[in-house]
Write a structure and sequence with these properties.
CATH superfamily: Gcn5-related N-acetyltransferase (GNAT)
CATH topology: Aminopeptidase
Distance between the termini: 34 Å
Number of helices: 2
Low-confidence stretches: none
Number of strands: 4
CATH architecture: 3-Layer(aba) Sandwich
Shape: globular
Mean pLDDT: 76
Largest sheet: 2 strands, antiparallel
Helix content: 10-25%
Length: 109
């Protein structure tokens, strides 16, 4: 039986009410392709409207990058909705490059 994933909750010291939730995959988890275990992945990054434009998102991404480095990972990926140009601009401004396009189709019954 595979082990349960580890979960972490980090609070940002300057703003204790803000936190980051990290769900870490267990080392025994199986993937179709081994390269899927070679990078970190940020699925969602949300900063409360009242705390935006203060550098928090950039600091949170730096912490995520550092955590991935401590795990021995050499790449980190992040996703955002195609229509979220603010997120796209932000990620590119801090050094991320678009590398994939994901297509979605709703399946009707």
């Amino acid at each position: 039986m595979p082990a349960k994933p580890r979960r972490y909750l980090f609070s940002y010291r300057r703003y204790p009410s803000l936190s980051v939730y990290l769900d870490e995959e267990d080392a025994d988890a199986q993937h179709i392709y081994p390269e899927y275990k070679r990078y970190g992945y940020v699925a969602d990054l949300v900063v409360a409207r009242t705390h935006r434009r203060q550098g928090l998102a950039q600091q949170l991404m730096r912490q995520a990058e550092q955590h991935c480095k401590t795990l021995g990972l050499t790449t980190i990926k992040v996703s955002s909705l195609a229509c979220n140009t603010s997120a796209s601009d932000f990620y590119q401004a801090i050094g991320y490059q678009p590398t994939e396009r994901v297509f979605t189709k709703a399946l009707t019954q």
